[in-house]
Automatic annotation (TrEMBL):
Name of this protein: Protein-export membrane protein SecG
Record keywords: Cell membrane, Membrane, Protein transport, Translocation, Transmembrane, Transmembrane helix, Transport
Keyword Nucleotide-binding: no
Location of the protein in the cell: Cell membrane; Membrane
NCBIfam families: secG
Membrane topology: Multi-pass membrane protein
Transmembrane segments: 55-74
Function: Involved in protein export. Participates in an early event of protein translocation.
Family: Belongs to the SecG family.
InterPro entries linked to this entry: SecG
Length: 75
């Protein structure tokens, strides 16, 4: 089980880095409260930038591992 936790920590670090490295869409945190992003204008996943795709990938993997850990701990 500890090996999977190390994988989850690495996924978490990757998710944090992809979020931090993304370019700002608006100055001074204007996008925090719902500013328009590229994802709002484009509904196709293949048209999104690489960092956005990586963010989605890391977040789905992180959420899946978190759910698996939660279900196995509380059994």
């Amino acid at each position: 089980m500890s090996g999977w936790m190390i994988v989850q920590i690495l996924i978490c670090v990757g998710l944090i880095l992809t979020v931090i490295l993304q370019p700002r869409k608006a100055g001074m945190g204007g996008g925090i409260f719902g500013g328009a992003t590229r994802a709002d204008r484009s509904s196709k996943f293949k048209n999104l930038p690489l960092l956005t795709k990586l963010t989605v990938l890391f977040s789905v993997i992180f959420m899946s591992l978190s759910l698996v850990f939660a279900l196995t701990i509380y059994r």
